[in-house]
Design a protein that fits this description.
about 600 residues; alpha+beta; five-stranded mixed sheet; 24 strands; about 25% strand; DNA-binding; SBP_5; SgrR_HTH_N
Length: about 600
């Protein structure tokens, strides 16, 4: 396939690559174009001639150039090559061709549609067996699948499909429900919590779950120094009574402990399996088992022995393909006997609890330590104007983590002249500042808007889109940072985790003195009865907002587009679907 790629590259470099047209070229020019040696170019030319793509006439003597005659059209070769990439599952390579600056727009549209058709539900036939296979695209790189270190919503969702907790939080009733533990209790001091495990639950590698696996999961968090272990520092001991009974003995009373035990980091793992390579060999007890995991492709197969009943889907293929068109999480049905996609999709709207925000890197020297400078950024962020001018992305002004609080807030707006006057009161000398953000269309539009506003008052901001913030170095180079926080269905625990987990942006960007003050505000947070937590949240937000340590910018309203034949689409707090409940309702033939 490599020589086909070379041929396409050559054609795209020509002013008019019409079939049967002849072009004057040199071996040296082609070597530069194809990034190879002149010797390799001669091999490529010979290969292209043998396959009938070109006719090559070598120049004879000084001053006589070689000529290349096109025998196969760009459209023909590109279509064949693109189909080969799709057939081989090389969807990322296919998507990269769509970004080629010389590719005609009509070709891009046609090939983009073919790429889109690879996703959605596909019915595969293997002999007499029929499989329902859902293909999902995620337009960024794969992060860690290790429950001890996961920090992104999509990877957390995947872990939830492959693993189970002892108990789970149910948002509708604001209570906890059984998973691997069928019953639990605490002593009268809430200092000893005991869990009774289901019998006969199997891991994906075949062994039956026991209390030893629960203890191992907790010990693993401790031994790996997991960022999530902040929840369990007050555990004095873990006691195994028998194969199906285990107790957590705490150093103090903690009625909030069930929130910790139901957090994703406590997804129960087998003690006899090494989960190396950032969770790419994850083994759990969930509805799907991980059978393939690479940088750009994951395969989840239905686990026939799942204790809550086999999933209705047979397989889920997840591709990590960078593509601008995949703006909505779209569950579509690929109709093999139909040339067009469905034209009337159903839609589910859901509101994300949380917001996109601007923070400053206080672990790095710079103008961001100046209170007045941070106030300038706040003044530039005219939220109503931002959401009006970025209307393609369904944004709402944010003045809090919570959409309902933002809706009730009537914040003042500031003119650019006022922002310029405040900037002149600082020591800013025209140095460019780096604004880091995740490389998504919505984020880029907002950051570009802020960059233009800043430039108009003499403030220079460099936009630094990133595919990941897993690297500490990437975080450290930022002066400003735009992040997003989406709270879990268990809102109280989600808030506590956001402010306490050292892998979050708050813990990485604030300095020790600021973190100490924040931690003091968190002390009474978990001791409060559930209805009273809001007053403690108010104090925390006031601390962050009045010093402009954390500036809410906008809320996102999300939507799911899907084929009406899909059943069981109930998005969670992050907009993800429980894949084990998803199924396709067939179109039944009408009998006369």
């Amino acid at each position: 396939m490599k020589h086909q790629e070379h041929y396409i590259t050559i054609l795209l470099s020509l002013d008019d690559p019409a079939i049967h047209s002849t072009h004057t070229l040199t071996i040296e020019h082609l070597a530069s174009l194809l990034h190879c040696t002149t010797r390799n170019v001669k091999w490529i030319i010979r290969k292209l001639q043998e396959e009938g793509h070109i006719h090559w006439q070598s120049g004879r003597g000084r001053g006589h150039h070689s000529t290349l005659t096109i025998l196969h059209s760009l459209e023909h070769v590109l279509s064949l090559y693109f189909e080969q990439l799709l057939t081989q599952g090389k969807l990322q390579e296919a998507a990269q061709w769509l970004q080629h600056p010389q590719l005609p727009h009509t070709y891009v549209q046609r090939l983009q549609y073919r790429l889109e058709q690879q996703f959605g539900l596909h019915i595969e036939h293997h002999g007499s067996q029929t499989l329902d296979v859902l293909r999902i695209n995620q337009s960024r790189i794969l992060e860690s699948l290790d429950p001890a270190f996961v920090f992104t919503a999509f990877e957390s969702h995947l872990i939830g499909q492959m693993c189970n907790l002892l108990i789970a939080y149910q948002a509708e009733s604001q209570t906890f429900v059984p998973q691997l533990a069928h019953y639990w209790e605490s002593d009268n001091t809430d200092q000893c919590w005991t869990f009774y495990l289901r019998k006969g639950v199997r891991f994906h590698h075949g062994r039956t779950l026991t209390a030893q696996d629960v203890k191992y999961t907790w010990e693993r968090l401790r031994d790996l120094d997991s960022p999530a272990f902040w929840q369990f520092t007050h555990v004095e001991s873990v006691v195994i009574h028998n194969d199906y009974t285990i107790s957590f003995v705490l150093q103090r009373s903690d009625p909030f402990f069930l929130n910790y035990i139901s957090s994703l980091c406590m997804s129960i793992l087998p003690h006899d399996h090494d989960m190396a390579d950032k969770g790419r060999q994850l083994v759990g007890t969930g509805a799907f088992r991980l059978t393939t995991a690479s940088e750009d492709h994951i395969i989840l197969d239905a686990f026939d022995s799942y204790f809550e009943g086999r999933s209705l889907l047979d397989r889920v293929d997840i591709y990590f393909v960078t593509a601008d068109y995949q703006a909505d999480r779209r569950y579509q049905l690929f109709r093999q006997n139909k040339a067009t996609d469905y034209t009337d999709p159903a839609q589910v709207n859901y509101k994300v609890i949380g917001c996109n925000f601007i923070m400053f890197n206080f672990c790095k020297e710079g103008i961001q330590h100046d209170f007045t400078f941070r106030q300038v950024i706040h003044m530039l962020l005219d939220r109503p104007l931002l959401t009006e001018q970025c209307s393609d992305y369904w944004l709402k002004p944010a003045y809090s983590l919570f959409p309902w609080k933002s809706k009730q807030t009537h914040a003042p707006t500031y003119s650019l002249e006022q922002a310029r006057e405040y900037l002149q009161q600082t020591d800013y000398q025209g140095q460019p500042l780096n604004l880091n953000y995740l490389n998504r269309a919505e984020n880029h539009a907002v950051c570009l808007w802020l960059q233009d506003r800043a430039r108009s008052i003499g403030l220079i901001i460099n936009l630094c889109p990133r595919d990941s913030f897993a690297s500490q170095a990437v975080m450290q180079e930022a002066d400003l940072f735009m992040g997003q926080e989406m709270l879990e269905e268990n809102i109280v625990w989600g808030l506590l985790n956001f402010f306490s987990n050292r892998s979050t942006y708050v813990r990485q960007l604030l300095n020790p003195a600021q973190l100490k003050e924040l931690d003091q505000l968190l002390v009474p947070f978990v001791a409060a009865p559930l209805p009273d937590y809001s007053k403690h949240v108010e104090k925390i937000e006031q601390f962050l907002h009045t010093s402009f340590l954390f500036i809410p910018v906008y809320h996102s309203n999300q939507k799911l587009l899907f084929d009406p034949s899909f059943q069981g689409l109930y998005p969670d707090a992050f907009g993800w679907i429980d894949l084990s409940k998803l199924w396709i309702k067939p179109t039944l033939s009408q009998k006369d």
